Amino acid sequence: MRKLIIILGLLAMVTAQDSGESYSPVVVYWKTLTPGEKEIFLFSYLTQVYESHSAMKQDLGFNEVTTWYYDNRAEMVYGIFDQLENTEVSEFVGWVDQFYSHPDFQSRPFIEALEFAYRYQEAAGESMWEKYQNMRFDKIEPQGD
Asked: In the chain, what are the domain boundaries?
C-alpha cells in the first residue's frame, strides 16, 4: 500500500510539472489521504513538533535554537492544541484543505497551511465569509460579546 501511495504521489508530481503547476510533496501526499487519515496526519504532525520542542529544551536548554523553534513552530502548535479543547481536528483539516485548494498555495509548505488554519479558526464569525472579512481587515472581533 505504501509503495502504491509513493508511486501515485510521484505520478501526480510529474503530471503537475507537465501542466506548469508546482506542488509541494506534502500537498501531493495530503491530497491522497482520506479525511480520517488527514486528521491522524495533522495530529501526528502537531505531536511531533511538541515532542521535538520538549526534547530540544531538555537536551539544549533555552538557547537561540530552541527560541527559534518555539517562535517559528512550537508556539502556533501549542495554540492549536489549546483550541482543540473546543474545536474538532476535522475543522483544522477543512482549513488546510481550503488553503491547498488555491493553486497559488499548492507549492507552499505545510506549516503555512497550518498557520492559515490557526488564524482562520481563531477569527470571529460563524461563516467562512465572516471570518474572511474579519481577517482581511485585521480586526478579529472577540467571540461571545
From this structure: 1-32, 34-136
